Structure formats: C-alpha cells, structure tokens
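Subject: AAA+ ATPase domain-containing protein

B.,
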Amino acid sequence: MEEIKCDISLDELIKFKNEVGICLRKHKTYLYSFRNEDGTFFNQTPKFSLTSTITCLNSLISAELGEERESENLFRILLNTKWKSANLEENNCYTSPLMIYGLNKLKDDIDINEGENKKIRIILDKIKGIIKDKSGLKVQNYDENAFLTFMGFISYESFYGFEKTKVDLINGLKWLEKVLYHQLSNYYANDLYNKDAYQLGYSLITLLRYDYEISTPIINKAFNIFFSDQREDGSWDRYNPLFHYPEEGNAYCFPFELLKNFFFLPEKFHIKFEEYIENFEKARSWINTHEKINRTEENISGWCSYHHPNWKDPESWATACIFDFLRNYDSVLKNLIRKTLLSSLKAQYEFKKEYWNKILMDVQVVVKGKNLLLKDIVLDHVINPIKKGKRKKAIGILFYGPPGTGKTLYAKSIAQELKMPLIILNPSHFLVEGFGGLVRKATEIVEKLKYLENVVVLFDEMEELIRSRAANAEYETRLFTTSMLPMFSDLHEKENFVYICNTNKFENIDKAAIRPGRFDLSIFIGPPYKEESLKMIKEYLEKLDVNDDEKLNYYNIFEQNFKEKLGDLFYHDILDLMVETKNLILEGLNDKDFTDELSHIIKNYSDHAKAELKKYDDGIEDSKIHFTL
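Prediction pasted inline below.
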C-alpha cells in the first residue's frame, strides 16, 4: 500500500480536482487570445514576442492542445529570428536556453540542417564554458542566479541528453549546492536582504533533477522553508531582480513559473507535493482572485505577472505558466485521490500466489457454438490488448456460473497479469445505510470509481443490483436495476479501467445488463476441462510426503479410473478432492479400497455439480463476446 502524506478528506480532494479541471478547459482559449495569424504569440501588445511565443507553444504542446508541433514554418521563424528579448544582447543566457529547450519540444520530425545545428551548439558551448569557469549563468552585470542556471541545464539536456549534462555541467551543480546552503543559512538567520525563495527553489530543483547527493533532512528543510515563505494571498515575494530590460524595467522570477518547474523533479520526489496541498490551494486562490477575462480591445484573457507597475492586463507567458502549474497540480491531485480511494476500498496490490500460470484452471466456454478456452478469450480480448496499448476504453466482464467455479480467481488473475490493483466490492459496501440508502450509496461508489484508472474492480455476488425487472419483480428490485444499469454504462466510457461482475444466478440478471455498452464479455464459467484437473492433481501429489512410485501409482488411479468424471467437477471441488485424497493416503488403504473410497467421493461431487449445472441450461451456451478493439 502506497503511503499517503496528506490528511485532507477525499471529498475535498475531489472538489479541488474538479475546480482545477474547470479552469484547465480554458487553457487553449486563453492562450489563443494572444495568438497572431502566423501562429506566433504576443505578450502585452499585438506584436510578435519571441520568448512569449516559445513559452505559450511549450505550454500547449505539453498539454497536447497545440497543432503547432507539426508546423515547420513556425519552427523556422523561431529558429532564425535573432534570439534576444526587449533589447537584451543577442544569444543572452535568458533567451537562448528558453529557445533551445522550447524548440526541442516543437521540432519532433522536423529536420534541422547543419547550419541550424551549429547555431545551437555554439550557444550550448558558450553555456558550458560559462558554467565551467564561473559556475552559474547571469545576464548583464547582475549576479549569477539559480533560475538562469536551471534554464541552462534543461536546455543543454534537451540537446545532449541527461548523462552528458551531468558530466559537462558538474561545476554548475557544485555551485548550486553552495547556493542552496547559503539560502538555508539566510532563512535560518532571517536575513531579509539576502534570502530569496527563488534561489532556494531553483537550486533545489536542479540538484535533485541531476542526482546530486543531498541528505534527506536538507531536502525536507528546503521544501519546508520554501512553502513556509508563501504569502497569505498565495503568492511569494518578488525578491531580487534577475536582470533589467532596457525597454521594460526589471525582470523577476514568477512564482507560478517556479511552481510548474518543480515538476522537473524526478518522479520519486513528487510524493513530497502531497504534504503541501494546502499551499497549492493558497496558490490556486491567488489564481482565482487575479483571473482577468476579456481585457483590452483584443479581448484577451488570462493573468498578469505584476512585474511592471504600469501594466495590469493579462500577459501570455504568465498565463501559460499558470496553466502549466495547474496541469501538473491536477496530476498530483489525481494520484492522491487514487491512493486515497484505493486505501479506503482496501485494494489488493500484491498477490502471494502466482494465479495465472500456477493456480488458475482453464475452462471450456461455448461461444456461438464454438468451444473456446476461457484463458485464450481473456488473453486475446483483455490482457494482451491492454498490455500492448491497443485498448484504452474500459472493459466490462460478466462472469456467471455456479458457486465454487473460480470466478473470483479469474478476477485476481486478470489484475495480477495486468499489474493493476484489485478492488473487490460486495453487497455489504452498498448496504451500509440499509436498503433505503442503497441507490445513493451505489451512486456515491461509482462516482468515486470514475476517478480511478489502471485498476480492476470486481463487483462480487451483485446479482441483486442488476436483477430482472420483470412485471412481478418487487418495486425495490426494479429501482435498483434501473439505477445501476446507467452506472455501468458510465464506467464503460472510462479509459484504462477493467470492471468485472460475478454472479451465481444468471437467470435472474436483467437482459439489458449484458447488452454491448455495459459488458464486453458475458462468460459462463463451469467445470475446468479434465486435462486441467488431472494436471492440478498431479502437481498436488508431487508435494505429498510419499515416495515417487507411490505418487505415480496414485496418479495412474486417477487417470485410468476417473479422468472423465473429473470433467464434471468444479474448481473448488477439485481443491476439496485433493484434501480428501491426502487423507485417504494417510489412512494407508490398499489400491482397491483407495479407488472405491475415491469413487464414492467423486460421485458425490459430480452429482452435486450436475444438479447445479441444470440451473444454467439456458446460460451454458450463451456466452457472448462484444468487442471492437
């Protein structure tokens, strides 16, 4: 079970995620309000802005919202424009890293000629040289700072790869370590002039991303200091400027740019964010309070950085950063909701036994008059398509048949093969508030399941919830079924989700439940075929404390006298038979007495199984496969 580092209620987390989702729907609309006809973007005034364009494009591509990825023309515009911002020098250490990292995202299959490659290499060699000699990057006569150095690192990595970046820019990491410890000291001493949350944050992000060794107490302290420095309105102080735009004034770090860049941290550190949900919510409160809709003559919408005292309208780059933060925060909430739900529903993550290959017994299934093996059906239509990425849409399975046939075992086997957690829901989950609250509780459970992906959910012994709505059925029965059927339809619209219903009473199931759109497979599970039963008996005999000749003799008795009869027995009958076999062996019976006793036991199991199977005369040959992959 994964550790949960958050004490916020599940309902609150779901509320947060829904609200974030509503805001994210505006992502493309808001950024496109800054878009020029040629596909570039402006910032404050309707003219092409190089850095705003690459920031907006990165944001749209990361969210899979932009068609610009395929635009070779736009790529050439950005690559061949002089890389400078607001009259800073060309190829400076702010504009160039931003462009290199962004163009790498934009290019995909676009061929870059040698001259274009050379331009990028020259700039990256310059960055490498500066970091080697001076450790950090800067613009103008300002001090080296962690933000520009972080940008240099990720641009270098985007072109040369992770390992080469670690080696070539090692001096930068050593310098950033000093920055981190210096900032920790500043905060400890409450040095108001020198402390800087952005220097702290960007040094921490870069060091952790490139596997620089930092002790866990230092990491925890740095996180705590950064989030403790958050203002009540959800933002952070501006602290020291990075540099000075000749035309626009001082340039500062933007808190939401830093927040979104925290997600450059390796995945193993993302669990830390769960400890700071309240801080993220304070940041989101700032977003809600400062959202500006249809401002200026161009009807632009978004957010302002408030870096410039004379500009209060939306800016494209700031808007892109906020959407990037929200998208990443949404993934934090999604994972936290998943863990909380799986914990509350007591999901099984690990299975002590290897079900598919060693425990599960295959069953012959009749589909449209053809004899098929259940394992093959499940492999062909469930496990392999999901593993190979050919099936994204949810898969619904209905297993029906007598008790003791191994229906639940198939659910566990499917979860184990897919490496997905298994949630088992039975009537007790739905009857917490009695029959009167059943529909409400069922709705609540299914609504929460909609927040889960990559999970197998077993609805065990749930026939009462989808019982036939025949004219003579009780009112409550018709109500339960009428309420549940749309819920299964909703689950079927999910992605990366498998749900299974087990029932012993197929004849009572409402026929609408097994129509396509709710269940893709409706499979009758009866006795394992006889070869499977013999195989399991042989494996069981191998484990007994008798000599090999005796083991072989007992197996031959089964094979020569009871092979056909074994084809009548259910899965759990075979398990019980093996226990009784062991007891007979321990009694030391001779072969004749052993065979007679075994014959009597197997007949009882067989008679019981046949009586049970008669109840399913209409269902044994009615298994169905409704699949379009």
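Residues 316-344 form the longest helix (29 residues).

T.
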